[in-house]
Amino acid sequence: MKAIVFDTFGGTEVLHEAETEVPEPGPGQVRVRVRAVGVNPVDGKIRSGIMEAIFPTTLPAVPGGEIAGVVDALGEGVDGLKVGDEVLGWSDTGAYAQYALASAAVLAPKPAGLDWTHAAALPVASDGADRVLDLLDVKAGETLLIHGASGALGTIAVQLAVARGARVIGTASPANQEYVTSLGATALVYGDGLVERVRAIAPEGVDAVFDAAGKGALEDSITLRGGTDRIVTTADFRAAELGIVFAEGPQRRSAARLAELAQQAASGALVTTVGATYPLAEAAKAQQVSDDGHGRGKLVLTVD
Question: Does this chain's domain 2-121+273-302 share its CATH topology with 131-246?
Fold first, then answer.
């Protein structure tokens, strides 16, 4: 099968296409014929080697862990799924490939009204958003500040926080202000003067901060909170030195919750935005865009 592989750590130039063995599912696993793959910032961090302490990687490796596709083969003991089922979820093996293995327990049915690319945009972002909102204990009536509100994670986090009854202030680039507003947040431009801009519209302060951007907003967040309590980042590796919680995992991978949100996405009740798609062969280009910090929604690889 075709797969994207890296044999050494480094920049996107280490990624290359290769022919690899089609994997065979073990007990409790299924093999998925991959149709779309979510590209996540962690993919590039693992490829670069900076995540070795958290995610040790055996080389050569195939990146990725977020898939949408069709069940192709069943391992021993799998119930509730059959060959031909359309699914989305998390893979056990590298997802930048024509086939990947996944635990049946972490796959959700793909609704007919949800296309492949938007299905692949949902698992990691929805899981991360739920997990951080729970860490922050966001409640109805509270004010939550989200940095990176226009990205894949921020897009989902804004909507789930609003659904909890929170007032959300979302930071994004000037080009994404209307988009963030459309998600239900009060949009603000990030960068110099942010503290004053937030205080102007929330003079009573913010109750919690979710940093999904990793663009140096933690100091402003501490100023706005008056300390480090109830600030969580998923993107800024300076968190520990500043006394901030870094939410690196583990993922919950709830198939039931994913199925619920997939239905909402299919009906239009939950917005999933795909910023750009790339064929599998252009995985290096997609990771470079991800490494550089793209502006809106999810980057997705499509697999023939």
Answer: no
